[in-house]
């Protein structure tokens, strides 16, 4: 109870205007108290830490900010020097650095370009801070490992991920420049999102009742391929073109045509659909040389 | 709650909508109160503990009322805590008065206002006979509605009074042509001998209230469904229907269904363990909480990390002698 009273007293705001002498003296004392509190917060680094955390929240705009903050501060504890009694001079081991880099790149959605790029920089720095070598850097092995972890099992069809990784991998001993690093990580995230979208598309196609009709799926995939295919995406007009090809009317026509063909109705499984759809995406990924 | 528009909100609005600053400010003031311990403990770790306890809903235990009611999440956490702490009352079939329930509430939140408890009791007891006994579940569900939707219910009460007095509620602006018709139709209702107000008109007002309100409202679809069965209704009838509606309880998400209110095998097991322990000991509990092995924060944040266990055995005595808070147990409930 006593502790509670103390807390209440501390939580009560300082009186704004004293009416009597005693009152104003007390207000003065309270103001001094507030002064030292602010000083304490500044000196102990609380102010900076809170500001940093709020910026991260604003960048990422998580659905559940409280959970996000809990995780954020937990990472901060784990990564702070001296955590777990280790010597501060020793750089964190490889697994920790990888986990931390992974956390950074997942902090903000890639559509928040600035935030995403910032976090990407942090991840790159974090991976390259190995300390043992004079010139730090990210090598191909570390980079590939990070990419593999981003495409965690189950998020996208396995062989499609493998095909993508083959395209954007570097050799184990090669140094990976930041541009390549950024490109690789971003591509992986886009693949994951593409897979999720393709999954939703399949849900629509199967109408919530079992496997979808193969002819319809095929028609949708063909339209998708057509829209993506043979176009050079460096020219902005191509985006419009692709968009119009995927418009509801074109798509509906294609699906309608597919259904009118007199073929035996066979089902296409979700796995197969996802595999084919994501393969289309991977085919468009430019390999790094 | 899945709302992509959060990505396009201006920063301050997003923070306000999710009550981020409420928690951040509270965290900092808690930190200031414990500042002696912080140096050895670590600021980041303090924040981690704080936000984890907010996430788990244990953060409202023994806090002041202004904080307990500050956010919908806090309210839901408080309801859940109340249920978990005192469910044995219901399990044993004990009936308590409003005053006694209020004492239980005050064990969790010392400055909990009596007015709220009384309002909740009035939902169960229909105005008169305020010293009647109530079952735990009746009180709990009425209390849930009254506490969680407190601001909403206040506005509804005002609307109801306006409708009853025959004026169209001035708080409501319905920009459709039908509202004009209703206004014209209103005066005859005035002298109607029937109880209450016309349901459809009442619902229209509620719907527009929910659209505008910045406070939590029950989902309009459920309210509509709930009101659809009756032609006319009274305010107390409305409150009772809200309290008894399982769908609204589910949408609120703090408590289980009425049937599952006393089902909690894990808790029962723990209670049994505790009874076994306590029967071996005398009532006086160990003074320090250092027994909480592997639970560093327990010492620094007593109200956050120590669930209140001993109450289950002494519920009625405790109702009179509030304020004994011994800690006996390190496990979570």
From TrEMBL, chain A:
Domain RIIa: 56-76
Tubulin polyglutamylase complex subunit 1-like C-terminal domain ranges (all copies): 96-286
InterPro entries the UniProt entry points to: cAMP_dep_PK_reg_su_I/II_a/b, DD_TPGS1, TPGS1, TPGS1_C
Pfam families named in the record: RIIa, TPGS1_C
The protein, known as: Tubulin polyglutamylase complex subunit 1
From TrEMBL, chain B:
Main location: cytoplasm
Stretches with biased composition (Acidic residues): 320-333
Domain of life: Eukaryota
Region called Disordered, residue ranges: 286-333
Presence of keyword Nucleotide-binding: no
Keywords, in A-Z order: Cytoplasm, Cytoskeleton, Microtubule, Phosphoprotein
Location relative to the cell: Cytoplasm, Cytoskeleton, Microtubule organizing center, Centrosome, Centriolar satellite
Coiled coil: none
Function: Regulator of the tubulin polyglutamylase complex (TPGC) that controls cytoskeletal organization, nuclear shape, and cilium disassembly by balancing microtubule and actin assembly. Regulates the assembly and stability of the TPGC and thereby modulates polyglutamylation of the microtubule, which antagonizes MAP4 binding.
Similarity annotation: Belongs to the CSTPP1 family.
Record protein name field: Centriolar satellite-associated tubulin polyglutamylase complex regulator 1
């Amino acid at each position: 109870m006593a502790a509670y009273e103390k807390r209440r007293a501390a939580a009560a705001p300082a009186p704004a205007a004293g009416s009597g002498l005693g009152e104003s003296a007390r207000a003065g004392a309270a103001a001094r108290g507030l002064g030292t509190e602010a000083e304490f917060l500044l000196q102990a680094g609380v102010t900076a830490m809170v500001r940093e955390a709020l910026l991260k929240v604003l960048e990422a705009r998580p659905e559940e900010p409280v959970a996000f903050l809990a995780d954020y501060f937990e990472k901060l504890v784990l990564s702070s020097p001296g955590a777990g009694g280790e010597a501060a001079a020793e750089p964190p081991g490889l697994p920790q650095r990888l986990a931390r880099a992974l956390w950074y790149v997942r902090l903000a959605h890639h559509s928040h370009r600035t935030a995403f790029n910032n976090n990407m920089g942090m991840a790159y720095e974090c991976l390259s801070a190995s300390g043992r070598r004079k010139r730090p850097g990210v090598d191909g092995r570390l980079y590939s490992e990070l990419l593999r972890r981003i495409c965690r099992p189950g998020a996208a069809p396995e062989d499609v991920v493998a095909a993508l990784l083959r395209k954007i991998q570097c050799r184990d001993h090669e140094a990976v420049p930041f541009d390549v690093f950024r490109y690789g990580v971003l591509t992986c995230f886009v693949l994951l999102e593409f897979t999720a979208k393709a999954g939703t598309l399949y849900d629509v196609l199967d109408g919530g009742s079992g496997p979808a009709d193969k002819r319809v799926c095929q028609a949708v995939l063909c339209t998708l391929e057509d829209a993506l295919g043979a176009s050079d995406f460096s020219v902005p007009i191509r985006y419009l073109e692709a968009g119009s090809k995927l418009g509801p009317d074109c798509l509906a026509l294609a699906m309608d045509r597919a259904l009118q063909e007199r073929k035996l109705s066979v089902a296409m499984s979700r796995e197969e659909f996802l595999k084919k759809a994501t393969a289309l995406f991977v085919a468009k990924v430019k390999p790094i040389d | 709650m899945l709302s992509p528009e959060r990505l396009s909100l201006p920063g301050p609005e997003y923070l306000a909508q999710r009550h981020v600053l409420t928690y951040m400010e509270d965290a900092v003031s808690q930190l200031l109160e414990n500042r002696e311990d912080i140096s050895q403990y670590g600021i980041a770790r303090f924040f981690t503990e704080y936000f984890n306890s907010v996430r788990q809903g244990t953060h409202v235990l023994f806090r002041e009322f202004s904080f307990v009611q500050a956010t919908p999440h806090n309210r839901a956490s408080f309801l859940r805590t109340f249920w978990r702490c005192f469910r044995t009352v219901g399990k044993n079939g004990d009936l308590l008065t409003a005053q006694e329930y209020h004492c239980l509430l005050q064990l969790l939140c010392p400055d909990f206002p009596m007015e709220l408890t009384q309002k909740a009791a009035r939902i169960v007891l229909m105005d008169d006979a305020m010293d009647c006994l109530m079952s735990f579940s009746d009180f709990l569900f009425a209390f849930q509605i009254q506490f969680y939707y407190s601001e909403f219910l206040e506005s509804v009460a005002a609307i109801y009074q306006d409708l009853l007095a025959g004026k169209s509620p001035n708080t409501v602006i319905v920009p459709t042509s039908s509202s004009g018709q209703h206004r014209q139709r209103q005066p005859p209702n005035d002298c109607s001998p029937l109880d209450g107000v016309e349901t459809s008109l009442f619902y229209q007002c509620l719907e527009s209230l929910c659209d505008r309100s910045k406070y939590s409202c029950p989902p309009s679809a459920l309210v509509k469904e709930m009101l659809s069965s009756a032609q006319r209704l009274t305010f107390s009838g409305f409150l009772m229907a809200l309290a008894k509606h399982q769908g609204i309880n589910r949408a609120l998400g703090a408590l289980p269904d009425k049937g599952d209110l006393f089902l909690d095998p894990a808790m029962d097991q723990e209670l049994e363990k505790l009874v076994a322990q306590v029967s071996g000991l005398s009532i006086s509990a160990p003074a320090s909480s250092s027994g909480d092995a592997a639970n560093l924060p327990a010492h620094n944040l007593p109200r956050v990390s120590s669930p209140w266990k001993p109450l289950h055995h002494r519920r009625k005595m405790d109702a009179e002698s509030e304020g004994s808070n011994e800690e006996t147990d390190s496990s979570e409930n």
